[in-house]
């Protein structure tokens, strides 16, 4: 698959691999389970220049590239999930600024994010608004030279460690009572009170927080008032297939571990890899991984070419890759027998880490809705007009 990519992308992948194996893997061993972004991880990611593909060259990046975003996530997710989350959040919190930021907003924030000097987050979900973004209740009131925001956000990744983020809130007007706007918020603004560090089944910096009279200067409004919904969807559209890439990386690690274990583990006088039932599991795993990887990079290439079908392919890739990776990792645990469920085993960790990927950035069911809608749209476009 990778040999089909342009040479520069293959070289980029090699650099990611080099970083993942020689720097990130030992660091992961040292840090273990975390529910924040430890200073050592923050510094390591910043030193690695890994954030480059999330940002345009003019603002300190190496040029926005969905393919390279996927290459990064595939390479690091199976090694250290907290590094993958930090990388993804830099994209989710940075891309709305790339898309809609004014020149001064871009100049102020993007080089900081590209260099990893600041960490970002993306604050959309609320207690009453998960899949249904239209149920958002957080509201921003126009108060002259600033907005006053009140509400509550839930399941915000990097919410504890981030220095800033993009926050979505209602800005109702008489013409559009449902209007949603996006704001750049900074952690030291008073009114951002993290009151619940949510503990997940796997390592993850994730919080719920109250927003109480958060004063945000007018200059921090991102894009025109009312542009928030479109901005949130466009951002998810870029990052969604990369969730699939992270899933592929996790599944690949599970396959590598299973190959190693199955060749070494002897039962009934033979390595278990000699049993057809193990071989079939490995065959299923590699097939699903290859299929998922192909869908992920197809979606990424389409996104980079601004192909109108990129939204459809991004949802297909996210849905298939996360579901397939879950199946593969489950098989890997089975191949490991009892050792697979021992706390601290790589496949046990992956079994916990893969699960949230089928939920965040749109559940599998929501991906199916998007895919069906896109198909219908396409079918209507191609229908001959009835007389
Ligand atoms: C690890 C993790 C990290 C996250 N990080 C962030 C973040 O950084 N920023 C952020 O804003 N959010 C974040 N989220 C929130 C995430 O996007 C939501 O959890 C997700 O969109 C689902 O919303 P919900 O949890 O409220 O589930 P619900 O929307 O309540 O869904 C519950 C169930 O109902 C199903 N369902 C809902 N509506 C429909 C429908 N119309 N048709 C069929 N089935 C339906 C869902 O598929 C699901 O199975 C994160 C979540 C997790 C778990």
UniProtKB/TrEMBL annotation:
InterPro entries: Acyl-CoA_DH_CS (IPR006089), Acyl-CoA_Oxase/DH_mid-dom (IPR006091), Acyl-CoA_Oxase/DH_mid-dom_sf (IPR046373), AcylCo_DH-like_C (IPR036250), AcylCo_DH/oxidase_C (IPR009075), AcylCoA_DH/ox_N (IPR013786), AcylCoA_DH/ox_N_sf (IPR037069), AcylCoA_DH/oxidase_NM_dom_sf (IPR009100)
Keywords: FAD, Flavoprotein, Oxidoreductase
Region forming the signal peptide: none
Positions of the Acyl-CoA dehydrogenase/oxidase C-terminal domain: 226-375
Gene3D superfamilies: Acyl-CoA dehydrogenase/oxidase, N-terminal domain, Butyryl-CoA Dehydrogenase, subunit A, domain 2, Butyryl-CoA Dehydrogenase, subunit A, domain 3
Ranges for domain Acyl-CoA dehydrogenase/oxidase N-terminal: 8-116
Pfam families: Acyl-CoA_dh_1, Acyl-CoA_dh_M, Acyl-CoA_dh_N
Cofactor entry: FAD
Gene Ontology molecular function, alphabetical: acyl-CoA dehydrogenase activity; flavin adenine dinucleotide binding
Domain Acyl-CoA oxidase/dehydrogenase middle residue range list: 122-198
Subunit structure: Homotetramer.
Database matches in PANTHER family: ACYL-COA DEHYDROGENASE, ISOVALERYL-COA DEHYDROGENASE, MITOCHONDRIAL-RELATED
Family that this chain belongs to: Belongs to the acyl-CoA dehydrogenase family.
Official protein name in the record: Acyl-CoA dehydrogenase family protein
């Amino acid at each position: 698959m990778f040999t089909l990519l342009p040479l520069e992308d293959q070289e980029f992948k090699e650099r990611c691999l080099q970083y993942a194996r020689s720097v990130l893997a030992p660091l992961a061993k040292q840090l273990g389970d975390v529910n924040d972004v430890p200073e050592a991880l923050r510094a390591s990611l910043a030193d690695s220049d890994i954030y480059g593909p999330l940002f345009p060259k003019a603002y300190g990046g190496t040029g926005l590239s969905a393919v390279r975003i996927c290459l990064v996530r595939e390479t690091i997710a199976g090694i250290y999930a907290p590094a993958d989350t930090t990388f993804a959040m830099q994209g989710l919190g940075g891309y709305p600024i790339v898309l809609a930021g004014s020149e001064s907003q871009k100049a102020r924030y993007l080089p900081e994010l590209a260099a990893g000097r600041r960490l970002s987050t993306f604050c959309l979900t609320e207690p009453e608004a998960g899949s249904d973004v239209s149920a958002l209740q957080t509201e921003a009131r126009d108060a002259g030279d600033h907005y006053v925001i009140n509400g509550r956000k839930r399941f915000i990744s990097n919410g504890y460690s981030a220095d800033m983020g993009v926050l979505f809130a209602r800005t109702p007007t008489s013409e559009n009572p449902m209007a949603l706007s996006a704001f750049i918020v900074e952690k030291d603004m008073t009114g951002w009170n993290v009151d619940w560090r949510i503990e997940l089944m796997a390592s993850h910096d994730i919080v719920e927080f109250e927003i109480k009279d958060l004063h945000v200067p007018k200059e921090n409004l991102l894009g025109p008032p009312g542009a928030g919904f479109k901005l949130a969807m466009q951002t998810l559209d870029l990052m969604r297939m990369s969730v699939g890439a992270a899933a592929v990386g996790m599944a690949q690690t599970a396959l590598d571990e299973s190959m190693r274990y199955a060749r070494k583990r002897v039962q009934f006088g033979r390595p278990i890899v000699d049993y057809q039932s193990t071989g079939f599991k490995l065959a299923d795993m590699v097939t699903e991984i290859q299929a998922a990887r192909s869908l992920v990079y197809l979606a990424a290439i389409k996104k980079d070419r601004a192909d109108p079908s990129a939204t459809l392919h991004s949802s297909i890739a996210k849905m298939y890759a996360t579901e397939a990776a879950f199946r593969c990792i489950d098989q890997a645990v089975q191949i490991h027998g009892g050792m697979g469920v021992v706390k601290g085993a790589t496949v046990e960790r992956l079994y916990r880490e893969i699960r949230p990927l089928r939920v965040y950035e749109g559940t599998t069911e929501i991906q199916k809705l998007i895919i069906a809608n896109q198909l219908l749209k396409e079918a209507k476009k191609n229908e001959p007009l009835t007389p």
